[in-house]
Amino acid sequence: MGHGQGQGQDRPDTRTRIQDAATVLFRRNGYAGTGLKQIAAEADAPFGSIYHFFPGGKQQLTEETIRTAGAAYSRMVLALLDSVADPVESVTHAFATAADDLEATGYADACPIATVALEVASTNETLRIATADVFAEWVAAGEQWFARWVPDPGTARSLAQSLIMILEGAFVLSRAARDREPLRAAGRSMAALLRSAIEEAGRPSE
Amino acid sequence: MGHGQGQGQDRPDTRTRIQDAATVLFRRNGYAGTGLKQIAAEADAPFGSIYHFFPGGKQQLTEETIRTAGAAYSRMVLALLDSVADPVESVTHAFATAADDLEATGYADACPIATVALEVASTNETLRIATADVFAEWVAAGEQWFARWVPDPGTARSLAQSLIMILEGAFVLSRAARDREPLRAAGRSMAALLRSAIEEAGRPSE
DNA sequence: GTCTATAACTGGATAGAC
DNA sequence: GTCTATCCAGTTATAGAC
């Protein structure tokens, strides 16, 4: 090993730890509910390091967190959807997994950006656009995924939007009730929606 | 006119103004993002009146706001659903109205409790339960409404949950993008879901 | 019951030592 | 680059005059 960024301990660098801590805290406590001092403590980093790595302060840290966590979440969900061959079973399995994961984390780890998205929608234009960009990427990725089984692009897009929306809404209800049932019901509805769309595509001459 | 609560001006009493202001501000800026001083200013009430009428402070004010606004929103949506005879058209019309209302308010006035619900789900047990109670009442009311057209109670309940979830998720995406399209897509999906359920109920012997 | 002043604390942001 | 001390505006909450 040379010198420089060798840490002896096997942990990420300060900048990464700050961003990871911010991701966790924003997801659980929201934007206004999370303090920079709290982030520094959770990251085990000195307070000043936040402004060293993120000169734009809380807004810059939050924007990078939204975009990074949003992209990571998209990859995670797509990998989950690709782990099952049949599309309807795949959607059902994805919602069931989300329900179990949510319960396993004490109903804390749902969507990484939804709380912040609602908080900033009317209060911070820069962050609002960041959340909008993330959702737009999710819809585009979902549209590509559904296009494998539903030829009409408009239908595929509508299915992708619906999956994201019903998942987001289910997260709200499941977290509030501390109950997996809403997420499971969401999975059943999304499966039904996809099944109908595939059937519809099977008989185009109507 | 006698004496006592005659105000000369025709405006609600102080307590009501405080609660109304809190409803508006929580909906737009969230729980942590709204200060009591801001609420007092918006209500045109002295700061001390908040603690006079709500001795439990911010938490008590928020809890009463969640429950009151939640019940009012439920009545509003049900009245909207009852304004059209055909159930599928009714659902479509309700989502279209929500989309237009959201756009008309600068994408600010969506669900009155969703932002707060996500913020408090992991941080304040009293408020988390208040939001859960409101959502449970919404599901129960929706179940009764769908039961008029779908005999199976489980299906009616699932439809009610799905409507609320897809509406909540659509609010998140529409507010983030400042675009009515997600809410419109949500309306189409919910209409499709209901149509399938009604058809299913029409041929019970399968 | 109305309203003001202030206490006690936490927020984001900055300056500057090392 | 790391870390501490501090500033000032903001928060919730309370005390007490009127």
Keywords:
homodimer; 206 residues; mainly alpha; Tetracycline Repressor, domain 2; disordered N terminus; DNA-binding
Please tally the β strands of chain A and state the result.
Answer: 0
- Quaternary organisation of the protein chains: homodimer
Q: Note the overall shape of chain A.
A: elongated
CATH-derived topology of the domain at 67-201 in chain A: Tetracycline Repressor, domain 2
**Going by CATH, what is the homologous superfamily of the domain at 67-201 in chain A?**
Tetracycline Repressor, domain 2
Output the CATH class name of the domain at 67-201 in chain A: Mainly Alpha
Helix-strand pattern of chain A: HHHHHHHHH
Taking all residues together, what is the mean pLDDT of chain A?
Answer: 93
Count, helices of chain A: 9
Relative helix content of chain A: over 70%
Question: Can you walk me through this structure?
Answer:
Two copies of one chain form a homodimer. Chain A has 206 residues and is mainly alpha-helical. Chain A has a domain at 67-201: Tetracycline Repressor, domain 2 (Orthogonal Bundle), CATH 1.10.357.10. Chain A has helices at 14-29, 36-43, 47-53, 57-81, 87-104, 114-120, 125-146, 153-177, 181-202. In chain A, helix 1 crosses helix 2. The N and C termini of chain A lie far apart (69 Å). At the A-B interface, helix 6, helix 7, helix 8 and helix 9 of A face helix 6, helix 7, helix 8 and helix 9 of B. The structure holds a DNA duplex (18 and 18 nucleotides). Chains A, B: This is TetR/AcrR family transcriptional regulator. Chains A, B: InterPro entries: Homeodomain-like_sf, HTH_TetR, Tet_transcr_reg_TetR-rel_C_sf, YxaF_TetR_C. Chains A, B: Keywords: DNA-binding, Transcription, Transcription regulation. Chains A, B: Residues 12-72 form the HTH tetR-type domain.
